[in-house]
Structures are given as C-alpha cells and as structure tokens.
Amino acid sequence: MEGVDYLRDERKKSEFDVEAMKVAWAGSREAFQVSDRMAKLVANDPVFEKFSKPTLGRKEMFKNTLRKAAYAWKLINDLHLTEEEAKWLRHYIDEPNYTDLQWEMFVPALEGQGSEEQKRKWLPLAQTMQIIGTYAQTELAHGSNVQGLETTATFDHETDQFVIHSPTLTSSKWWPGGMAKVATHAIVYARLIIDGHFYGVHGFIVQLRSLEDHSTLPGITVGDIGMKFGHGAYNTMDNGVLRFDRVRIPRNQMLMRVSQVTKEGKYVQSDVPRQLAYGTMVSVRQTIVSDASKALSRAVCIATRYSAIRRQFGSHDGGPETQVIDYKTQQSRLFPLLASAFAFRFVSEWLKSLQTDVKQRLEAKDFSTLPEAHACTAGLKSLTTAATADGIEECRKLCGGHGYLISSGLPELYAYYVPACTYEGENVVMMLQVARFLVKTVSEMSYKQPVGTADYLGRMAPLMHNNCDVQTAEDWLNPSAIVKAFETRAVRMIVDCSQRIAKFENQEEGFAELSTDLVEASLAHCQLIVVSTFIQRLKQEIPGKGVKQSLEVLCYVYALYLLHKHQGDFLATGYLTSKQASLANDQLKTLYSKVRPNAIALVDSFNHTDHYLSSVLGRYDGNVYPKLYEAARKDPLNDSDIADGINQYVQPILKQKLHLAKL
Ligand SMILES: CCC/C=C/C(=O)SCCNC(=O)CCNC(=O)[C@H](O)C(C)(C)COP(=O)([O-])OP(=O)([O-])OC[C@H]1O[C@@H](n2cnc3c(N)ncnc32)[C@H](O)[C@@H]1OP(=O)([O-])[O-]
Ligand SMILES: Cc1cc2nc3c(=O)[nH]c(=O)nc-3n(C[C@H](O)[C@H](O)[C@H](O)COP(=O)(O)OP(=O)(O)OC[C@H]3O[C@@H](n4cnc5c(N)ncnc54)[C@H](O)[C@@H]3O)c2cc1C
Questions:
Q1: Taking the CA atoms of the chain, what radius of gyration do you get in angstroms?
Q2: How far apart, in whole angstroms, are the C-alpha atoms of residue 624 and residue 105?
Q3: Per the annotation, does 488 bind a ligand?
Q4: Up-side HSE of residue 179: CA atoms within 13 Å toward CB?
C-alpha cells in the first residue's frame, strides 16, 4: 500500500460529516464559500506559485513579491472583489508584503485615529492605493515602551507646521513593514512638543517618497534593516529603518481624533480616553488571534496526514508496520494541537464579536468595556501566538527527519510565524497588561461588580473555598466541572498575587516583584476564556452528522490537556487532589482514542489547499514518497553531476591524497 491508499482508508473511518465540519470551522456557509473560492483562485493561478521561493536571492524574492501584490491588486479590481474576498485573497497568497501594512495598520489607523476631515481626505487615497502607507511606531531603542519613543514632533507657530525629527540614532524608526522600499507615507509616532512642553506620543501622517518617481523626499533617510530569521519566510517584506532631519508637515497631519492642536498651538484633549490612540494595535491583535488558528491548523494538517502515512516498527510476519499516528506518544503530542487549532478558531470568532461591540459602544461614547477589550486582545494574542509557535515546532518534530526539509513546509511556516510572539506587543509585556487589569479589577471589587470575562472574580468567596467533587474519570466529561476547575485556579492565583502586592508599601514595586507569578495568573485567566468560549460555542446549534460530538471531544481534549500540563497550578491552589488530576489524565487518554478515527477528516475540515500548505508531507492525496523524491531532484545542486566548486576545491585535495599515497 502507498500513502495514497492510507489516506483513502483513513477518510473512510470518519464518524462525522466533513462538509458540515468545514462550515463549522469557517463560521458560516457564506464564510466558507468566500474563503474556499479565494483559496482555489490563488491555488489555480500560476502567478502565485511559491515553491521556488526558497531558492531565490533576496532581491529576486522581493521583486517576485511585488509582482504578485500588483497582480493581486489587479484581480481585486478586475473581479470587483469585496473587502472580505480581498482579505482572503491576500491571506492565501501567503507572502508578507507591504499590502499587509496598508490594509491591517495604515488604513485602520486613519479610520480609528483620524478626525472626520482627515478621514475624508486620506482614506479614499489609501483605499485606492494612490498612496501606500506603513505604521512607523517602533524605534531602534524602544518598541514595547511606546511612551519612551524619542522621535519628536515640534509645533512651529510661525509656519503652522510640525517639525518631525530624529534627535538620536536610537530614535531611528526600526521594523515597520513595507517602509524600506515601498511606502510613500507613514503614520509616524512621535513625542508632541509645543513651546517646550511635552504632550505625549501621537501619530502623524508623513510623506516619505515622491508620488512622481518614488524617490525619498528631502530630510528623509530610509532603508532596509536586513535579512530576518529563515531564508524565505518574512524576507519578502521590506522592514525598514527611517530617520528624519527636521521634516516639516502641515499641522493638520497630526491624527486628531483623540486630541488636537489648534492654530494657536493649544493642545486640546477630546472627551475620549487617550488609549484610543492605541486602537490600531488592539484591532490588529484581534486579527493575530485569528491568524494563530490558521497557522496552527496548517501545521497540524501536515503533521496529521504524514503521521497516518509514516510507518515505523511493529511489523509481524511481514505485515505492515505501525502507522506512527497509532503511537500513544504521537497522539498525546498531536491531538492537543489539533484541539487547540479549533479552540483558537472559536475564541477568535468570539473576540471579533467583542471588538465589534466595543466599536459600536465607542461610537456612542461608551468607553466602559475598553479596558476589558484591551486585556482580552492582549492576553489572547499572547496565549495563542505562543502556543502556535511552539505547536508548529512540535509538528516539525512529529514529522521526524523529513519535517526538517523545506519541502515539508514546516520550517518556512515556523520562521514566518514566530515573530508573531513579538510584534504587536511582546507576549510577556502583553500578559503583564492582563495582570494590571486583573489586579485593578480585584482592588475595585468593594464598589464595582466585575463583568464580562472577569465576572467570575465576583464569585470569589465560593471559588476560594470550594473543592472539586470529581470522583471518576467520567466525571470530567462535564462542562461545569471543567469551567469550575479553571475558574477556581485563576481566581486563587489572582487573589494570591493581589494580596501579596497589597503588602508592599509601593504597589508598583510589588507588581514588579511578583511579575512572574502575575504572568502565570494572567495565563490561567486567558486559558479560562478559551475553554469557556469553546464550551459556549458547543451550546449553539451546530448542524451536520456527528459534527457537534466530534467538537465536544476536542473541547474536552483541549481543557484536560491544559489541566494536565498545568496540574502544578491546579494542585498548588488546592482545588484538586492528585487523584482527581490523575483521573483527568486517564480521561484525556480515552479521548485520544476517540479522536484517532476522525483525525484525518478533522484536518480535511480546515479545507486547506495543497498550494496553501506548500508541503510534500501534507499533500491531500498522501502521495508523499514519490513527491519527496521529485522535490529533491529539483534542488539546484542536482542540476549537474559535478557541482560548481568541485573541480576547484575538492579535486585538488583528492589528487593531493593520491600523491601522498604514492609516497
Ligand atoms: C502584523 C505585523 C506588523 C506588526 C506591527 C507592529 O508590531 S506595530 C508596533 C506594535 N507595538 C506594540 O504593540 C507596543 C506594545 N506596547 C504597548 O502597547 C504599550 O506601551 C503598553 C500597553 C505596554 C503600555 O502603555 P502605557 O505605558 O501607555 O500604559 P500603562 O501600562 O501605563 O497603562 C496605562 C493605562 O492604559 C491602559 N491601556 C494600555 N494599552 C491600552 C489599549 N491598547 N487600549 C486600552 N487601554 C490600554 C492600561 O490598561 C492602563 O489602564 P489603567 O491601569 O490606567 O486603567
Ligand atoms: C517581523 C516584525 C515586524 C514588525 N513590524 C512592525 C511595524 O510594522 N511597525 C512597528 O512600529 N513595529 C513593528 N515591529 C516591532 C515590534 O512591534 C516590536 O519589536 C515589539 O513591540 C516588541 O518590542 P521590542 O522589540 O522593543 O522588545 P523589548 O521590549 O525590547 O523586548 C525584549 C525583552 O524584554 C522584555 N520586556 C520588555 N519590557 C518588559 C517589562 N515591562 N516587563 C518585563 N519584561 C519586559 C520582553 O518580554 C522581552 O523578553 C515588528 C517586529 C517584527 C519582529
């Protein structure tokens, strides 16, 4: 039997309706149809071929990406694609480039932070790509600490302009995507200075390049920051360095929704919180959670298909060897990742609806849910990206030696994905923001009832004193037992930190001293959100034979895997006995055997095309070995029998040996 037959047999074992699961994964039939249509459009168009990328040099790779982006823009216009379709099209092209910054950051920054007048002027230009923008916040010396940025924007009364300047080397903008070679404009974050007074960091629209010939404008020095991790991966993006030498812009190019500077040089703070200036980061963090489920599902799809094809050991009487997916150790590493991909998918849908709600409230000047939205996006961004980056690497290991080949698709995916742990808020820094929110919520509880994702803190008294009543492994198959365990663990960790901080005379000092424990408590809170959201999702109608049942199994796998992994927390907070923890682990192993027959069908439900996976190991048809052989033959080193350099550097050594042998 060949890999093709193995996967065919595996698909027959499925206990649920795969087409219905595809819809459940996508969120709705309409969402499925849009993403499916765009995936096929990209996969079937030779312009979007990406298998040659790893063999290209940087300049060629960059040019190739520009070509694809231009062609995609043409398709978007010629086919009159909707905004949603265009988003999926860009996603499936699967190469970071300047348009990510244009659509994910530049346009949202104008929308969220521009005044009505500014939006009327700049948005049509950006939306039709008459200008191309980037988001220039991070500097050589400051990324996480936004208030520490050094670039200055000094108001000049006489000319009614701001003077944008890089006073030090460390104030050089460093990292913004698309900035080195493509962007004509940037939203530049700089310290506002009026008459020698500092008014905090604000965004300014600054033109970098001529719209006539694309040359850099006077006073601007811009370039690329150099190659990044991996060969292909993020190197299609021109992340840039930018310096300003007293560049002048009109006053009305400061983004003026949150605060304004008048012609007289008066600083006016609107009736909206200053944190709205951070709004672009919040909206991108939500997108990053959604991207985590996509990246993880991709790695899991490759590792699961290959694990069903790969056989090692266990052959008796000349019969077939064991499929590696049947090893319990393989299942215990792979299936939690499969469950996590679904968990992240559902929590990202929930987060999107939370964001929509916050946006509507902001329009009505209701800012009450802003702190919670910030904590959720920051925390979930951190949790999902960390788990996804680790998960991709685990999938590489699950594929043994072949996982290390570029043709497996996994090294490229990892190198491309891993900066998500750093950009848009370094993960630990983000968890500390969650901690601030939680500690503040606890400190305000005497006069303010916690709501939303923190509402369980309001049930502190029972949660602090109850004990788990699980007696058998079956008792763990109960959503309320699971939620109670996660709530209790989180509440006890948060309260413990809060009480210890309260003992410090200086609360900030206490917070810093306990920051390691606070990060762990924040993670416990975020895991509770993911687990609860998964459970809530299962309370909704999910059509299709066996679909809901399969998702229930995955939900328990996700929750009990976390419980097992973090059993130290659950035991230390005194809610579980070691016997109950071990019953959870017994149940987890039983659940793995329920996932096993459905594993291939579950990864088929992601509906990933072979183009998107770009993996010989993860091919839908399972024809792995012949295609691996074919891919190897195509390596440029195999173009000739005698490679360049052999005659020059190897032959002389061989000949010298001959000479010595004669002696
Ligand atoms: C996709 C690839 C492209 C990548 C692009 C990039 O990477 S672009 C670059 C991406 N770069 C990054 O992601 C940089 C990451 N760094 C940051 O976002 C900020 O520097 C910070 C949040 C760490 C600290 O900020 P700070 O020193 O100004 O603040 P503080 O800690 O003193 O807190 C003050 C209060 O503000 C609150 N609050 C804070 N943020 C928000 C918010 N978004 N919303 C609402 N509220 C928020 C906070 O909770 C606190 O509330 P409290 O307690 O007073 O009620
Ligand atoms: C691929 C990529 C693309 C990017 N694109 C853009 C872009 O388009 N525009 C843009 O403006 N920026 C961009 N960035 C920059 C990115 O946003 C920053 O790198 C990120 O916010 C992290 O900041 P930092 O580099 O200053 O890390 P640092 O804050 O210097 O982190 C270093 C270490 O210090 C720790 N640390 C920092 N502060 C604290 C604290 N208070 N408590 C405890 N530990 C702390 C961190 O946990 C980390 O371990 C990009 C970065 C990458 C990698």
A1: 27
A2: 39
A3: no
A4: 31
pLDDT (0 to 100) of residue 130: 98
Question: Is residue 427 a contact partner of residue 421, using CB atoms and an 8 Å limit?
Answer: yes
CB neighbour class for 132 (10 Å; exposed up to 12, middle 13-18, buried from 19): buried
287 in Cβ contact with 382 (< 8 Å): no
Does 177 carry a binding-site annotation?
yes
101 lines ligand 2 (CB under 6 A): yes
What is the Å distance from ligand 2's center to 348 Cα? 23
The single residue of 424, 426, 520, 552 carrying the catalytic annotation is 424
Instruction: Please report, to the nearest 10 degrees, the dihedral formed by the alpha carbons of residues 563, 565, 568, 574 taken in order.
Output: 0
- Among protein residues, the one with the nearest Cα to ligand 2's atom 29 is 144
541 Cα to the center of ligand 1, angstroms: 37
Q: Which residue, 516, 529, 451, 518, is CA-closest to 487? A: 529
**pLDDT of 659:** 61
Measured in Å, residue 515 CA sits from the centre of ligand 2 at 18
Q: List the domains of the chain with CATH numbers.
A: 106-271 (2.40.110.10)
Pairing of strands 152-156, 197-207: unpaired
**Does ipTM surpass 0.90 in this model?**
yes
Angle at 412 between CA 410 and CA 416, to 5 degrees: 115
DSSP, res 323? B
Separation CA 468–CA 478 (nearest Å): 12
Q: Which two tokens stand for residue 404?
A: 């290390």
Quick check: is 424 catalytic?
A: yes
Blockwise average pLDDT, block size 10, the chain, 663 residues = 84 97 98 98 96 87 96 98 97 96 97 96 98 98 98 98 98 98 98 97 98 98 96 93 98 96 95 84 93 98 98 87 96 98 98 92 88 96 98 98 97 96 98 98 94 95 93 98 98 97 96 98 98 98 97 98 97 95 98 98 98 97 97 93 97 80 58
